[in-house]
Specification:
The chain is an alpha/beta fold. It has three domains: about 100 residues, Chitobiase/beta-hexosaminidase domain 2-like (Chitobiase, domain 2, 2-Layer Sandwich), CATH 3.30.379.10; about 300 residues, TIM Barrel (Alpha-Beta Barrel); about 160 residues, Sandwich (Jelly Rolls), CATH 2.60.120. The protein is built from 13 helices and 25 strands. It has an eight-stranded parallel beta barrel with strand order 6-7-10-11-12-13-14-15. A six-stranded antiparallel beta sheet has the order 17-16-19-24-21-22, with no helix packed on it. Helix 3 runs parallel beside helix 4 and helix 9 runs parallel beside helix 11. The longest helix is centred in the N-terminal third of the chain and has 18 residues. The two termini are about 50 Å apart. About 45% of the residues are buried.
Length: about 575
């Protein structure tokens, strides 16, 4: 009887493999370079064997290179075991079944990083581990850990414990919270097991108000450099180069009397302790051995910086926390990695996706949602694993992968994103010629720059699109008329009760549509200035300040063609002028 039951259960399992065929090669992120599928049959995984390298496979491309072959549930992997198993996890359907495939894959660039700022807003080790897990899934192999900034030094300091004293730190910014050396080593080990190297950043000499508060002098002073020398010595003795080969020394957004002398001091410290130095560019002048992290997004500046010599990483696609996150997801996919049509790793080492939160964060669990971290990671991983740049048509196809990951692979995660690349617009800005744009979220400032259109501080625009429906029905959509940056907090704020923010208006077939929800804080958070180091920077963002976090609006479509029209005013200088219409 037991044998009969076992055979019956096995038959059910095999049927479930056949009935739940969710496999599609387009579901793997990032896309493998060489992919062959035998058929669409699925088999339960029986074994996974890590084999020695085959004689006819030299793995010449990179340390990321791997080979994976499955045959009726028997899986053989070679090369980079971690990345092979992450691909296998994406191949496996909900019933634990996989197809017969053969995959040979490698990365275009050796560095594919993600940076998070815990200097301004502390995160627990468990939260950082969740981020590491997500990075590993998408083969993002460097975690750039920004450990110090204006509010605090987040590294245990035994020689100068006052650096960890809450009284010298910015009030309300997780005062007194830091990472012990045991915790830092723990996270480094956790990341290593998942294929990730940690790059700690100790920002010197800028972004260091806590330092002057603590000691009464600045980092670049003679006294400050003596303190730093002892701090770096302690850090490097606690965290050896074998665990942490890189040290990011910051150096940006600061003006000091002797920039060359200070940079020579910090770079020599890195060399003394066997570390590869990294620094921001633009920043203080680095020597040829320091890896430059280029962050200026101004048109043309990135390509020029990339060509000036020396090794560099690309952060000039912009920051997750600055743009509308759905717009930025598209922007990252369309970005030309390292300003190269064809990857050349002589000096171009890859890219680092950055997430800063200048504004105080009250609920750390909302950071990923407020900044579109997960959807941003997906397109970043694709771009820097494969290099080059994507087209709109490729993005439309890639969104099918993203939808699968959102609905199946990451179904327990809250991801505020929906496919939108197929949407197209005609946009009339003032009295200028009509412009065309694509995507559900449009940064009008970027659109003007791309079309060499010079506009004033205040102007209005109209955006038009059409939705064809086979029948009369209702749909839901996110609608927004601004995406406040999570950095400088410049914003028109929340709209009046019953109205959209930024005086925007939505019309469907000539009928004006109002927001679905009642605002909790109508007309609040209107800041027409940079809030850096001002009291307003300490006001945390709430969900209703972001259209992608709000209740969608219900829209009634008639059978046939439906006109969607948005009125988008620019109301003040420096505004992040944008709009969004995302169907759910």
């Amino acid at each position: 009887m037991k044998k009969v039951i076992l055979l019956f259960l096995t038959s059910l399992f095999l049927l479930s493999c056949a009935d739940n065929n969710r496999f599609n090669k387009e579901n793997i992120i990032p896309t493998p370079k060489e992919f062959t599928i035998q058929d669409n049959k699925l088999y339960p995984i029986k074994e996974v064997v890590n084999s020695e390298k085959r004689d006819n496979l030299k793995f010449p491309h990179s340390n990321d290179e791997y080979y994976l072959k499955s045959s009726k549930g028997h899986v053989v992997i070679e090369g980079n075991e971690i990345w092979a198993k992450q691909t296998l996890s994406q191949l496996t359907n909900e019933s634990g079944c996989i197809p017969d495939v053969e995959i040979h894959d490698w990365s275009a660039y050796p560095i594919r990083g993600f940076m998070h700022d815990t200097g301004r807003n502390y995160q627990t080790l468990e939260m950082l581990k969740e981020t590491i897990d997500l990075m590993s899934l998408y083969k993002i192999n460097y975690f750039h850990w920004h450990l110090t900034d204006y509010p605090a030094w987040r590294i245990e300091c035994k020689i100068f414990p006052q650096l960890n004293d809450a009284q010298y730190q910015r009030p309300g910014r997780d005062c007194g919270k830091f990472y012990t050396y045991d915790e830092i080593r723990e996270l480094i080990g956790y990341a290593k097991e998942r294929g990730i190297t940690i790059i700690p950043e100790i920002d010197m000499p800028g972004h260091s108000a806590y330092f002057k508060n603590t000691f009464g002098f600045t980092m670049d002073s003679k006294e400050g450099m003596k303190v730093l020398e002892k701090c770096i010595e302690e850090f490097c003795s606690e965290i050896p180069a074998s665990m942490c080969p890189y040290l990011h020394i910051g150096s940006d957004e600061v003006y000091i009397a002797d920039p060359k002398g200070f940079m020579a001091f910090t770079e020599n410290l890195c060399k003394k302790y066997g570390r590869i130095a990294m620094a921001w560019d633009p920043g203080l002048p680095a020597d040829s051995t320091t890896i430059r992290q280029i962050w200026n997004t101004a048109a043309g500046s990135n390509a020029a910086s990339a060509k000036k010599g020396g090794r560099y990483v690309d952060s000039f696609m912009g920051y997750l926390n600055y743009y509308d996150p759905i717009y930025f997801t598209n922007k990252t996919f369309l970005h030309r990695a390292c300003a190269q049509e064809v990857p050349d790793t002589t000096n171009a080492l890859g890219g680092i996706l950055c997430l800063w939160n200048d504004v105080r964060v009250a609920d750390k669990s909302r950071i990923a949602l407020h900044n579109g971290m997960i959807n941003g990671m997906m397109t970043f991983a694709e771009r820097f694993w494969n290099g080059g740049e994507g087209s709109w048509e490729e993005l439309v196809a890639f969104e099918e992968k993203m939808s699968h990951h959102k609905d199946i692979i990451l179904k327990n995660q809250d991801i505020r994103w929906y496919p939108n690349a197929a949407m197209s617009w005609k946009i009339k800005i003032g009295d200028n010629d009509t412009l065309k744009a694509r995507g559900g979220a449009i940064d009008v400032n970027d659109l003007c720059r791309a079309n060499s259109l010079h506009i004033g501080d205040t102007i209005s625009a109209w955006a038009f699109t059409h939705i064809y429906s086979e029948e009369e029905k209702t749909i839901e959509a996110w609608v927004g008329f601004e995406a406040a940056a999570r950095s400088n907090r410049m914003s028109g704020g929340i709209g009046k009760q019953g109205e959209w923010e930024n005086q925007g208006k939505l019309f469907v077939n000539g009928n004006e549509i109002s927001p679905s929800q009642k605002w909790n804080e109508p007309e609040k958070y209107a800041f027409h200035f940079n809030t850096w180091a001002k009291p307003e920077e300490e006001l945390p963002y709430t969900d209703e300040q972001f259209y992608w976090m709000r209740e969608p609006v219900t829209i009634h479509l008639k059978k046939g063609d439906n006109e969607i029209k948005l009125y988008i005013p620019k109301t003040f200088k420096g505004q992040r002028w944008s709009f969004a219409f995302i169907t759910l």
